[in-house]
């Protein structure tokens, strides 16, 4: 009987050994800092194998833990003993935006020589390194022929003074234009004129102007007839172009409107992304809770792993708490941006920019209805006011 029991235990251990070994090999990589990304790793089954027979692989990250190595590649992970890593070479960084001096190109010459030596020693790495070699050699060749990098682009060194001179001339023109515009604005204001939608009008002309007519602001907001990210991008681009032609308070209002729309849609996008992240985090938490249940049950040897179960439950609690906190932060941020947009809507309504008011009010209401229940958030600008503006615009047309 004693022999039979010992035999059964030994057999169970033999059957469990491969699984335990796999779990043990994966465990060290649970939460480790990553090495610098991008390079070529050289692998050998045995350290004494010849360099010319070694294998090569492009990695994104190398992660080590004791005797273990994880090679992160675009197609997946390779887990193996660190003794199989014969050598590795990091790809050189991209050139800086400004590269004009010989000492700045010197590191690229060193990198090129190092890569060529590495490729010669380990032939399997040669086709993997060749694209990087060609790029770095191209940098060096351009620099040797008189090109430099200026603001992230390769240009002839002789072009830089011309570019700087053109910029100074353009800046002077802008300053002159701004001075002339200030003089014209001051003269018009002194003559009792009122600026309306980019034009100086007499008081009589301003009073005769149809309050529900199209304006440059309302035309810029036209893409928001569909309150989508694409509509927001187009409206913001329109407003930025309009602001470039304006000065003073009018410019500030247009820029404030563009910023409000940008912040509003960014906040909604961040909330949508956080909702997706929260779903993923909750799924991971549920997986840890299932693991905790498994650890709490006796295994084949009658052993409970209470420590592992507690760790899994703690991880699950942390995941759920973090997900809930981040989701609440994103929701609060969107509500704050909606309230800001409400204030801007009211301001444009006071300025009698009714078409712009309608566009912004409808956008705020649409986003609020997409993301919140009426109990959570209701826009300040009344629906009846939007309906009244719609009726007056239709009658004006």
Polypeptide structure, described:
It is built from eleven helices and ten strands. The longest helix is centred in the C-terminal third of the chain and has 49 residues, at 248-296. The model is unreliable at 1-37 (pLDDT under 50). A three-stranded antiparallel β-sheet has the order 2-1-6, with no helix packed on it. By secondary structure, it is mainly alpha-helical. The protein folds into four domains: 25-90, no CATH class; 102-155; 160-208; 229-396, no CATH class. It is flat and about 95 Å long.
General shape: flat
What's the domain count?
4
- Fraction in beta strands: 5-15%
What distance lies between the first and last C-alpha atoms, to the nearest angstrom?
101 Å
The number of helical segments is 11
Low-confidence stretches: 1-37
Largest sheet: 3 strands, antiparallel
Rg: 33 Å
- The mean pLDDT is 83
What's the quick description here?
The chain is mainly α and 397 residues long. It has helices at 2-26, 102-121, 126-144, 159-190, 203-208, 216-220, 229-243, 248-296, 306-350, 354-371, 383-396; strands at 39-43, 55-59, 61-65, 68-73, 76-81, 85-90, 147-150, 153-156, 194-196, 199-201.
List keywords for this structure.
3-stranded antiparallel β-sheet; 397 residues; disordered N terminus; 10 strands; single chain; mainly alpha; 4 domains; flat
Topology:
Elements lengths: L1 H25 L12 E5 L11 E5 L1 E5 L2 E6 L2 E6 L3 E6 L11 H20 L4 H19 L2 E4 L2 E4 L2 H32 L3 E3 L2 E3 L1 H6 L7 H5 L8 H15 L4 H49 L9 H45 L3 H18 L11 H14 L1
Antiparallel strand pairs: 1-2, 1-6, 3-4, 4-5, 7-8, 9-10
Helix pairs in contact: 2-3, 7-8, 8-9, 9-10, 10-11
């Amino acid at each position: 009987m004693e022999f039979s029991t010992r035999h059964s235990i030994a057999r169970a251990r033999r059957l469990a050994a491969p699984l335990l070994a796999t779990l043990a090999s994966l465990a060290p990589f649970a939460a480790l800092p990553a090495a610098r990304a991008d390079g070529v790793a050289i692998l050998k089954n045995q350290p004494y194998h010849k360099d010319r027979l070694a294998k090569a692989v492009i990695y994104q990250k190398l992660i080590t833990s004791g005797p273990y190595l994880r090679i992160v590649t675009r197609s997946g992970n390779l887990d193996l003993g660190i003794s199989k890593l014969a050598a590795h070479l990091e790809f050189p960084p991209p050139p800086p935006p400004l590269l004009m001096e010989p000492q700045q190109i010197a590191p690229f010459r060193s990198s090129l020589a190092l890569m060529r030596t590495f490729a010669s020693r380990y032939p399997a790495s040669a086709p993997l390194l060749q694209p990087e070699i060609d790029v770095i050699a191209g940098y060096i060749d351009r620099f040797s022929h008189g090109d430099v990098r200026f603001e992230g682009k390769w240009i002839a060194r002789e072009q830089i003074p011309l570019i700087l001179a053109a910029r100074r001339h353009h800046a002077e023109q802008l300053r002159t234009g701004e001075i002339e515009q200030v003089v014209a604005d001051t003269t018009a204001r002194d003559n009792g004129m009122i600026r309306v939608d980019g034009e100086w009008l007499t008081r009589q002309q301003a009073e005769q102007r149809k309050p529900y007519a199209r304006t440059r602001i309302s035309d810029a907001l036209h893409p928001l007839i569909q309150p989508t990210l694409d509509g927001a991008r187009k409206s913001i681009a329109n407003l930025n172009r309009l602001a470039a032609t304006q000065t003073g308070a009018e410019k500030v209002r247009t820029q404030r409107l563009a910023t409000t729309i940008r912040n509003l849609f960014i906040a909604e996008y961040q909330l949508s992304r956080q909702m997706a992240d929260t779903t993923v985090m909750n799924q991971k938490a549920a997986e840890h809770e299932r693991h905790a249940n498994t650890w709490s049950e006796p295994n084949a040897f009658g052993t409970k792993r209470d420590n592992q179960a507690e760790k899994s439950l703690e991880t699950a609690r942390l995941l759920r708490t973090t997900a809930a906190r981040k989701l609440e932060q994103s929701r609060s941020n969107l509500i704050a941006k909606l309230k800001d947009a409400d204030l801007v809507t009211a301001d444009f309504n006071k300025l009698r920019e009714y078409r712009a008011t309608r566009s912004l009010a409808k956008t705020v209401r649409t986003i609020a209805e997409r993301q919140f229940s009426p109990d959570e958030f209701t826009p300040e600008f009344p629906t009846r006011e939007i309906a009244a503006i719609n009726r007056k615009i239709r009658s004006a047309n």
